[in-house]
Design a protein that fits this description.
Elements: E1 12-15, E2 18-21, H1 29-34, E3 42-46, H2 52-61, E4 70-76, E5 96-101, E6 120-125, E7 144-147, H3 153-159, E8 167-171, E9 187-191, H4 198-201, E10 207-211, E11 230-234, E12 253-257, E13 276-280, E14 302-306, H5 310-318, E15 326-327
Amino acid sequence: IMDSRNIKNKNIGLSNGIAIVKDFNKLDDDSILCLKNIENPIRVLLNNTPQPYKLSMLNDEVLAKGVTNVTLVLSSQDKVNWINLNDFQNLSLIPSIEIHNNTLDFKSIDGIQNFKHLKSFSLLYRYGKDIELELLRECEQLEKLTLEEPLTKQHHDKISKLKSVKKFNLKNLKTEYLTNELPNAEYIEVYNLQDYLLHAKMPNLKNLRIYNSNKLADISFLSGLNKLEWFYLYGLNKIDKLPDFCNLPVLSKVSVNNMKMLTDVHSLTSISALTNLGIRATGLTLDTLDWLTPSNFPELKNLFVELTNKKDTAAFYERFADKEIVKSIMLT
């Protein structure tokens, strides 16, 4: 674990268990070498064009020595976009890159193909609709992709060809636009999901998180994800009922939050191995949850339920007074 007393450079700090290199260009050689002794995850921040020899030192003396928990964070906050991934060829071993761009003219990730060991790539804030996502196919070890801007139809087609990716964070996903199945996808966090074909295009999902998707009037597609272990639903305000889960043998964690129309979650009784449950929905009452008892859920270990008023919530928890469970915060 990082001991800040051993790091003398003021540009290296610790925040929430993560070592932050505030401005990599300002590190001296000794401070760069010290990074290989840090066990915490490391975020290396750059907000201007890098110095090549420092990149080489980070690559050859830190990354090449087995340090794999390093994320390169490129930030462009002013009116001039300085980010050119071809400037980072000396950092070929970097496993994770985030681009935080606040300019309107960021249109190219050319150079991404130089990172043959890249496992995670994130594009945040503004970038052009014609961004060449097809270049990510050259990153054959890529496992995680985050795209913060709403997806275009063209984006969908390019994502469909990223067969190695296991984890997606996407916005405005319309699965019918995916031209290929993505069998390696195990995790997806999606904002404003547009349609109902997730089970057909990502059939092996284990962890699913859907946020603020008010176009969805039916989530029966969940029943077709037979490898699903955990799902989290937030702000699906047209959904009044959870679907049947009988065909989901490994599902054990469920969270539903801020779903205004939800009045029926009785299908949870079909989850025999339920261990973690979180419910916050104003349409549910103490009476409509009369079946949610320790005897019906013997494996339950972690529970959060928030009803319309505190009195009903307290009365609900009395059912579990004799059972050892963690009354947790909302499961996310």
